[in-house]
Amino acid sequence: MFLLLICVLAIFVMKFLPAGFLPSEDQGYFFININTPRAYSLEKTDAVTRQVEALVAKLPGVESYTMIPGYSILDNSVSTTNAMAFIKLKPWKERESKALHAEMLIKQLQSQIEKIPGGICMAFNAPAISGLGKTGGLELQLEDKSGSGLDKMTGVVFGFYQELSKRKEVASIFSPFRNDIPQIRLTVNKEKAKTMGVPVNSIYSTLQSLFGSYYVNDFNKFGKSYRVIIQADAIYRANEEDIPKVYVRSNAGDMVPLGTLVSLTPTQGPDVVKRFNLYSSADFTIGIPPGSSTGQGIEAVKEVAQKTLPYGFGYEYSGMTREELISGGQAPYIFTLCFIFVYFLLAAKYESWLLPIPVLLAIPFGVFGAFGLQWARGLQNNIYAQIGLIMLIGLVAKNAILIVEFAKQKHDAGHPLFDAALEGAKLRFRPILMTSFAFILGVVPLMTASGAGAASRHALGTSVFGGMLMATICGVMIVPSLYVAFQKIEDRMKKKKEDKPNSEIEK
Length: 507
Known about the structure:
Layout: H1 2-16, E1 29-35, H2 42-58, E2 62-72, E3 77-89, H3 102-113, E4 120-125, E5 138-144, H4 150-164, E6 172-174, E7 181-188, H5 190-195, H6 200-212, E8 214-221, E9 224-230, E10 247-249, E11 255-257, E12 262-269, E13 274-276, E14 279-287, H7 294-308, E15 313-317, H8 319-328, H9 331-350, H10 356-360, H11 363-376, H12 383-412, H13 417-442, H14 444-447, H15 454-506
Helix pairs in contact: 1-11, 4-7, 9-12, 11-12, 11-15, 12-13, 12-15, 13-15
């Protein structure tokens, strides 16, 4: 009954323990992304950046910072409405206070920069694994799978954004998708160009060369290779009035003003059109508040998507979030394989299908202790905690094996079953406590670690410490009783097998 209660409690704690993939680490730096309204010039964006800089300079724990106007780290685009900041923190020895942890500083700064008028500012931590994703939060791709168009997608993105920003599992949310950037639509009058003998491809190549850029060739000089690219000077391609001033050569050799062959129409549209899995998409970067996990954020996104996304629209995750979902589905299979491997190994050792069960039934104590201490410390059920559980399967089984092995030897030598179990527990009591508590004390530095990689060490150390402590205290008392129960069943089965041949001989 007590064992059943422990199993139920272990499942209960595991269900309510926040799930995650990799813990958010204090890597000594973090980023700020700044996005200003449409048609903002670089000078206006820089003015917003200066306001962010003033707040960063007052933030405790900051050693230095770099402001970069014109570039967005979230969508890797260059635009006059984008800016970013790289914040370097002081060494960990000077930031031992929890209030100076990177996550707490990000939370404090975010509450200040979001009040700056004229810009959408988002502070976020670096990804736990460099190169796997852009941020330490969630990366979401909202997809237009039905080809409804950018106008319909704009409304869907806005509704999804507004609803998701109300959730407490989300600290900040940002999407670079914008469909209101002032643009100029240039239309070529192909019939008129043909009448005047101007090749259409000459019109396009002229526009590309002067207003975009055109690669010509490479040449070598002074032992180096140089690339030749032609382009009009900035002052001659800054305004739409500069386009009619350009001339294009006709087939007859005449120079025809480009303004007579094209028409310019003011319009609005997206700055960058992104695609994900061949669908038009809008990417979201979602920050997770301290105390919450990415698993809770994923559940919040799922609920909001079911409520707001119409038919023909869907979403997928990218970056580290995609890896989390893929890896999360593999965990049950890994634990199942571990149990099966241990069971068959013990079955071969004891030459019995029943005696491995008392050993395996000691593992729920370790699972309950591991998840219980994780929950008490406010940690998550992440990949490091799961590695600790796999380690516990071997460590907890080792203690139970020692008790069952000695009890079995005594019972095979002719001792009564209860006395054999009691003797086995007495013989192995001191060695089990010595080795177990030596190991438990050995992982204390992991639980109290600070500095680089502290979050992962906390998760691993806490899982092993709590599981091993619980399994050691309860296992010494419960395993002998389990051995007695299953050994009785095996003895009865052996007796039935022995009585069956005797009865057949008598017949």
